[in-house]
Structure formats: structure tokens, C-alpha cells
Amino acid sequence: MNGPAELRVAGRVFVADDCNVEAGVVTASGRWRRRMGANHAELRYGPVETCSWPICRVESIKWLTPAR
């Protein structure tokens, strides 16, 4: 499968513009998302990067509808 997704890896959220799952490896290009501020109401995003993880390290994948 491939497309935009939100991945949870080690309790952190990675927002991927493109995510690909193939041969037991998840490869995604996007940004890490952090919650900050009072009551964690503010969202911050890190720089764009490409990451790969073995499928066993990814806690969940939420596939998103591509923007039109």
C-alpha cells in the first residue's frame, strides 16, 4: 500500500505525505508532529525527512485521503 498516512512509531506521530509498505519495511517521507503549549493545544512540525522502519516497530498506520 502507499499514499499519505499518519504513523505512530515509539509513541511519536509521523505525518507522511507519502508512505509505502513493502516486504516488511515501512518507508515514509514527511514530518514528525509534536504537541506543545498549555494542555498540548499547539501543534509543531519538524523538518521534512524520509525514514524507514521494520513493520514490527510501527505501532499503527492511519491512511489518509489525498488532498485534491
Low-confidence stretches: none
Mean pLDDT, nearest integer? 92
Share in β-strands: over 45%
SS class? mainly beta
Shape: globular
First-last Cα distance:
19 Å
Count, helices? 0
Number of domains: 1
Q: What is the count of β-strands?
A: 6
Cα-atom radius of gyration: 12 Å
Helix content: under 10%
How would you sum up the major sheet? Answer: 6 strands, antiparallel
Quaternary structure type: single chain
| H-E order | EEEEEE
Descriptive account of the structure:
- The protein has 68 residues and is mainly beta.
- The chain has one domain (2-63).
- It has strands at residues 2-9, 12-22, 25-36, 42-45, 49-54, 58-63.
- Strands 1, 2, 3, 4, 5 and 6 form a six-stranded antiparallel beta sheet that branches.
- The protein starts with a strand and ends in a 5-residue tail after the last strand.
What descriptive keywords fit this protein?
single chain; 68 residues; mainly beta; six-stranded antiparallel β-sheet; globular
Question: How is the topology of this model organized?
Answer:
Layout: E1 2-9, E2 12-22, E3 25-36, E4 42-45, E5 49-54, E6 58-63
Antiparallel strand pairs: 1-2, 1-6, 2-3, 3-4, 3-5
